[in-house]
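G., the chain you wanted modeled:
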Amino acid sequence: MNTILKSPETQVLVDIHPKTGKLLPWQRKKKETLELAASCRRLEKEDPSFKFRAAQLEQCGNYLEFHRAVKTGERTLSRANFCKYRLCIMCGWRRSLKIFGQASQVMEEAEKQGYRFVFVTLTMKNCCGVDLESELTRLYAGTLALLRRKKYKAAVHGWMRVLEVTHNIKVFDKSFDTYHPHVHMIWAVRRSYFRDHYISQADLTDDWANCMKFDYKPLVDIRAVKKHDKGAIKEVSKYAVKPGEILVQDRDLTDSAVWTLDGALANRRMVSWGGVLKAIKADLNLDDAENGDLVNTDSEQPLNPELEYVIEKYKWNVGLGWHQRIE
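Predicted structure as tokens:
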């Protein structure tokens, strides 16, 4: 990461990605996290447990410490206080970077071992908030049941599964304020898959509907991808729930979404691995993307330890609405 001091007077954090040249959204993510904290403060009147969540969110990302190489100016995040709350916007962003980095590493190693990849999306109909928790349980059970079928056991040698829940906030839509749970998966297959074990979209549609006992044809997607297809990796690495579908102008709708998602996602694995991909992840000694280290995201290059560096510290300035240099 490159950190540029906006001016000598304020010395605020302006973090530019070294490869893309884009501004990294520390300020926006912190402000969104504070919006989420405000919702939790409102909800604590109904459920005291939200008081603890609010306190976590208010402190999350307040302190950031970077190492900056003296000769090259290269910077990397070395310390931070992340809360790791499931709905936290700041932690969700860092977690998505970590999932992307881990998926990239695992797929690169799997490709060396001769595996190819298939990207799969499995969906179900929208549901109301009170049914979301039970529908997620059905969804998870359905994916495992699908992979236990003889055809899929022969075809799929490893998998990565990531949950996504979209929230319909279009007021005039028929499905307004409903939730759409679905999973994105990456399957590791052998080269012979495309000759001997190929699964068509029509087959997957029928098999998925059968596993889930749907009385309708679900929307599914299945397509071959290459390891360097960043689009597929980004698709499985994005937020479990988009911030813009939680934080809306209508406070009641925001609070309802926070209440619903907090309960439905509690103690639930958002990212799961199986088969050879799980084994490769273990061999690479990659930690847990959900509860592990969010400072090191596995997608950012660490600073060369042989380089001389200085430490730069930033603290969130409430009045300024930005991270301000403190040392």
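The radius of gyration is 21 Å.

Shout if anything looks off.
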